[in-house]
């Protein structure tokens, strides 16, 4: 058919012919539509710029949809849009729709049919040959939506060729894809790849990869997070995925960037890839070596890494030297002394605690000491001590009163401070402006005690200055002290700065501050803060004033530090990350990697996460990023907040990186089901931890976490000849190993490995001690590891030590300095969240059995939780002494949180509070057998905890003191030991022996 024959002309209506001066209005051809634009022609969105007639043509492919005919009084209107711009051709014949409506639609369909067929074919090819990434899905859905709008619903009423109709049917299905349809398409692809590469997955590692490991290798969304439990084979996935990408042709070796947490981990990964994939082309990189590469490519030369980057001690020495130089400046030295005197510790009010014991525990754990190195009982006393010391006024803390006021039942009075050169005493009373004490203190008794002391000083004509908590709270304590000192004409002789500095150095304070500042330099630089950002950090700190004071001391060190690096032509680790990030963000470095894989993602810091995100999004101008991100982590093992790691980047991965596909490895090949159950129950007490169902390949029906409860000073016994708890555990392990050897009548090829684990290295045997243990137990290979160092490793057995309370306890209750806390990721709301994960790490190093050693008179709350909250642990493997069994029943009656520990005095043994010397409560054991006694079995009575004795004595119902059996003129009675003739604090309560026996019988019935 000639082009003339294929043309169809649409005539004007009579009005159009008259108005336009031409009978033909529009030409329709196989290639497109043609019309004249001239005088009188009305086009929506178009205003003619000249009067001449102009022929305009558009191809059918340019029209967004088929032309539409609409009737008007002066003829039909022909409407269509081109790239969203609307056109209307008016005054067409009244027969236009009848004659040309279907023809126009057919011509448009013929012109666009090939493109719709090609689009559908491309989509089908995509979903068959690659994992449907979110970005690709969004592109497909946008294109399908656009084409659907062009074709539907008009196409359903028009006869079209078979291939176009088939393509449109598929297009309609694609347009209505639900989330389940998308998941089905992805699953089809994964299954096809599982079959195609089955042999590779069978042999890439020593053991065939599990189904979930294989799926983790194949699934390739834009953002992928693999949550891998301890011992589930995440390294096998890293190796398998890299190998699969290359073998399947999706990537070349240099398309893959594999990031490891540290150099050792990267080297181990390289070794594993070389062994399993037989290639040196895929290399693991650390974040720092990545930073060096980016900087080198942009700057044209490799930067020099500062020696300090890998030598923390050298950096600490430089910071201390710089600090000492700054101290030579009078103004800086004054700031430093003020900081150590008033802002060194994180102060908490005694009114914020629920018991005196909790308050004492806080003071003990944070080692609150004066500039003289003395431990005091309150922050008010701390400030008083430091002021007296700095002003050269000799004082004695809690010295005995110069007049003997002790008795058989009461020890000698000890005022808070004594100034021996002036015979002046100072008492600091913990009362507020309403004469109220902390809620756990008996207010009335405290006020009576204050009055007794006043009367005592009045009687003996001694001078006692009184200071109060409410003065300290209002910041007026030192002002009041100075005023009183001046009034008494006590001479102030401020110590020379050199003397104060010598004392601070003797206490190690300056060195400790230098180490803190050394660490802070890195955290400050990594944060990349402007002035507004810094103000926000300081204002939001837990203790804003203390944080600001510390930063004022740090700030003069920051510039010299950076100047030193610049003068040496060096950069540090923070510069590596910061510079690399800047070059990526400004397009100076374009990432060549299309597959980014990050190991141990739970340990990542926010600056490093920012770098990873920038790598993923890096592309040439006008292009779209093509890289996919694959991160492997386990939020249950996130234990490095102290170095800047932010677990929320794992638990809130999607919020940071965008839509994410999560996969899980839930079968562990390391620990048995009993260890797994205990560890999982423990770590998931924190509701923020991601839910995972970790299943063990090794299933057992008996407990394999065993607790040994034994005091540090407990001697060996006939039942337990081991000299201490550690050897007790090692003997038990040795017997188990021998039993296995006897069972199979052969010695295993490799000796069982035993890890001795603790929160701190110093709690473990030293090199000589470890060597002796290995000689003592030749069938075992014994190694020492801190909890942190053990991560990523495994042993046949573990022995966990250091499970106690205090500054070096576990969990550690020492408060992080507020300035350090301010520059670290936000702390979690759940108490001891990271320490809880650290214990999980310790438990899950063991394949067969974990032993937890604890002295229950000073036991970690984690051990108490294991014993009290229905964990499936073994408590009967070892014999346990009475004190260790009944630790809950021998709590201190004064502070309530301390435990009564057995002590040996000059004359006889006794029990005293574990918070000593802050809490000086002590009491005798059972007068019949010497065992500890408890007050919680029967109301109003103390009961001997030795079941073969069970001696019982009443407790004073008035003051809570012990009672002693005495003889009176009317027979035997129980009298309070706090009876003190003619003193206001005396307690004269007494009860007849028979009445006490009746009360005991009643209490037993009630229980």
Topology:
Layout: H1 3-6, E1 8-11, H2 14-20, E2 24-28, E3 32-37, E4 54-59, E5 68-72, E6 75-82, E7 85-92, H3 96-129, H4 134-151, H5 162-175, H6 179-196, H7 198-203, H8 211-218, E8 223-228, H9 234-247, E9 256-260, H10 263-277, E10 284-286, H11 287-299, E11 304-305, H12 312-327, H13 330-343, H14 356-365, H15 379-390, E12 396-397, E13 417-419, E14 424-429, H16 443-460, E15 463-468, H17 469-473, H18 477-487, H19 497-506, H20 509-527, H21 531-539, H22 544-568, E16 570-571, H23 573-585, E17 595-598, H24 606-617, E18 628-633, H25 648-651, H26 653-657, E19 661-665, E20 667-668, H27 673-683, E21 695-696, E22 705-709, H28 725-744, E23 753-758, H29 767-776, E24 781-786, H30 787-790, E25 795-800, H31 818-823, H32 833-843, E26 846-854, H33 861-868, H34 882-885, E27 900-904, E28 909-913, E29 922-923, E30 933-934, E31 941-944, E32 952-954, E33 963-968, E34 971-976, E35 990-992, H35 993-1006
Could you explain how this protein is built, in words?
The protein has about 1000 residues and is α/β, with parallel strands linked by helices. The chain is built from 35 helices and 35 strands. α3 runs antiparallel to α4 (about 135-150), α3 (about 95-130) packs across α5 and α12 crosses α20 (about 510-525). The protein is elongated and about 140 Å long. The model is unreliable at about 40-50 (pLDDT under 50).
